[in-house]
Write a structure and sequence with these properties.
366 residues, alpha/beta, 6-stranded mixed sheet, 13 helices, 32% helix, elongated
């Protein structure tokens, strides 16, 4: 029986047919060739200390390894502990992608709340309980949590960023190259809110479905909440789906969202960084947004001495020449194209010395 009539290849691979829709909470687990990690992942579902009714909704996206053998083994253990397991999937020659798999897993599930889990990650026993409590208090929010990275030193700056953003920075730092400030493997939300925002984009490999959903969530007025405990072992490995997404794709989505969400609030602004990244942002803006750029600023004396940046590829005549100033001579608001946590604190000290308010006087883009 097909989960979606228009998708005949997406047929359930197990289970006893439709279940009564009474489950309170669904763990959403897309799977594609996850054999090395599935035992740990599924074991962490079994170990949850949540006392409500819980199901696990798995969608197998054309796995060619022994993922289904592992899933069938764990189905018996989980259902023996009172956790309903719903299994769907397809065995087409090629996977349909993470967005498609998540949508299918959600469609076949029945919980009032959705807890997203990647097949290569491991939940701490209190994850579902603590995030559910937060979701009840914040029904229009995506709930995240702090994480522990595996291997521990694989992405140290990124992990610090995930875990240490202040609550207001969950909203002000949504334009950075790090992606969603509440990262996808930690997402938890109500089904009603997901239905209001979603579904995920199903473009497949190379599409940042989490970032697109995150932007739509913010457009709809959604909130962002992080449970400040480490509730997920977040694994880093070369096969992770995120590595299939081109940096240029992410860049384009980020620039467009910056122009839609932030720049309309500013009559003019300064780009902090007269180097490669700052100039790239300037060139990527629409003509209307470029007109708002009154200056670049920097600390590099050579760039400042030159006095201006000329946009040579512009079709305008004369070609735009944007002043380059020392950061202390520049006027906020700033779009900052300097990477955080890379200069031994020098950049952060410079920024703090101006006594500005993040979100109002500056935004981070790098």
């Amino acid at each position: 029986m097909s989960l979606y009539p228009e998708s005949p290849e997406a047929a359930p691979l197990g289970g006893e047919g439709p279940q009564p829709r009474t489950t309170y909470l669904s763990v959403i687990l897309p799977v594609h060739d996850a054999e090395p990690w599935l035992d740990e992942c599924l074991g962490s579902v079994l170990q949850q200390d949540f006392e409500g009714s819980m199901e696990l909704s798995i969608f197998n996206d054309a796995s060619k390894d022994k993922s289904m053998t592992i899933i069938e083994k764990w189905k018996e253990k989980l259902e023996g502990s009172g956790i309903l397991v719903v299994i769907g999937g397809h065995d087409s020659p090629s996977p349909r992608g993470v967005g498609y798999s998540k949508n299918q897993a959600i469609a076949q599930s029945s919980g009032s709340y959705l807890c997203f889990l990647d097949s290569d990650d491991v939940m701490m026993p209190q994850r579902v309980r603590l995030q559910h409590a937060a979701a009840v208090r914040h029904p229009a929010s995506i709930i995240g949590c702090q994480v522990r990275r595996e291997p521990p030193n694989s992405t140290e700056r990124y992990t610090r960023w995930i875990n240490h953003l202040a609550p207001d920075q969950l909203l002000t730092q949504v334009f950075t190259s790090n992606g969603p400030t509440v990262i996808m493997p930690t997402w938890f939300c109500s089904r009603a809110w997901f239905s209001h925002v979603g579904p995920f984009d199903e473009g497949g490999r190379g599409v940042p479905e989490d970032l697109l959903f995150f932007h739509e969530h913010l457009r709809k007025g959604g909130g962002l909440v992080r449970v400040d405990q480490s509730l997920l072992l977040y694994r880093y490995h070369p096969g992770a789906a995120t590595h299939s997404i081109l940096e240029t794709t992410i860049w384009t989505h980020r620039v467009r969202f910056l122009e839609e969400w932030a720049l309309p609030h500013w009559a003019t602004f300064t780009i902090w960084n007269a180097g490669r990244q700052g100039r790239r942002l300037y060139r990527s803006l629409t003509a209307g947004s470029r007109c708002k750029v009154v200056a670049f600023c920097d600390v590099d004396e050579n760039k400042i001495k030159k006095g201006f940046y000329c946009y040579e590829d512009s079709q305008e005549r004369p070609k735009p020449r944007v002043p380059v100033l020392h950061f202390r001579a520049a006027q906020p608001p700033f779009v900052i194209c300097v990477k955080l946590d890379l200069t031994g604190g020098a950049f952060e000290d410079n920024l703090r010395s101006l006594h500005l308010q993040e979100g109002r006087d500056f935004l981070h883009f790098s």
